[in-house]
Amino acid sequence: MNRTQEVARLRVDYQRELELGTERFHAPKRTECPWCGSSRLRTRLRTADLLQRKPGSFVIDQCRDCSHSFQNPQLTPEGLDFYYRDFYDGLGADLAEWVFAGTGSRKRYLASARALLPFGAPRRWLDVGTGHGHFPQSARTVHPATVFDGLDMSAGVDEGKRQGRIDEAHRGLLTDLAPKLEGKYDTVSMFHYLEHTIDPRAELTAARTVLAPGGHLIIEVPDPESAMSGILGRWWMPYFQPQHLHLIPLANLRRELESLGYTVVAVERHEPHTPFDITGAAVLALAYALPTADDPWHPAPPSGLQRKARTALFWSAVPLLAGMYGMEQLLAPLLRRTRLSNAYRIVARSGDAA
């Protein structure tokens, strides 16, 4: 079955779902900050799904007291299923594989793996939110004696094991699987994972459960205090609506880890920067401006003229996007040292008692 036939088949189910509206995919709107409980909230962002262009609107609110930013109203598990569908798997599988297996991604994986070198050689490492296991595959070149396992909700984790990228696959939620994995790992990684979770605090607690005493938790997340978020607004890629549910300031995450008995042993606000902000904004703007693609969440396929216009406009923009990307790579060493850096890393050691 080719893509056109697959889209036509899926369109029936998507349209049946969309006839019921997208409001049902959201939980009740919060009136208090989920991090500190303050009722002093402000709207930070209103946007749509700029990448897949699935129907729906999304709001990110920010707490005026602790600066935590969060999707409000937040998507329910059913809503998350709808908006994740055909993004990393299904119709989106090939593009996701191209992104996660690309040269830029491999460079980031290697840098993240090297961040653990000062703390000894890990024996057994659990990569949470591993997807298809691309990080462990790269990290083996830095830690060749380490056993790498992966955990993810999707079937990609099983594919990662089949491809030999991970040694053992755990499919499900960390919060559900943690009791069975108690004390099994001396390293747990969460690379751009916490921002996707419904309850980040519960994830940190679950990580403490699976870590052996003295083990290390390494976290990388978007930095909501990046100046680029204000400059680019809704076009700042790390907002990544509707998938990113929480944007956690460094100080908040550090305090939470310490309250759970972790000792923060390293913080890095510059090196984890992903040099893609300008290019990403252009990609989002282009995706939003182009005639719609033949995707099943649109009521009807595009006309022949729309298809030709989309193809012509896309390829005409490729040289500009390539130039932007090259410029960002050249400027990355400078931008990493400024408030324009878009991500941060924390390494924390678990206490004597899990």
TrEMBL record:
InterPro entries tied to this protein: SAM-dependent_MTases_sf
A Pfam family that the UniProt record links to this protein: Methyltransf_23
GO MF terms held by the record: methyltransferase activity
Biological processes annotated in GO: methylation
The organism's place on the tree of life at top rank: Bacteria
SUPFAM superfamilies: S-adenosyl-L-methionine-dependent methyltransferases
Keywords for the protein's UniProt record, in alphabetical order: Methyltransferase, Transferase
Name recorded for this polypeptide: Class I SAM-dependent methyltransferase
Organism from which the protein derives: Streptomyces blastmyceticus
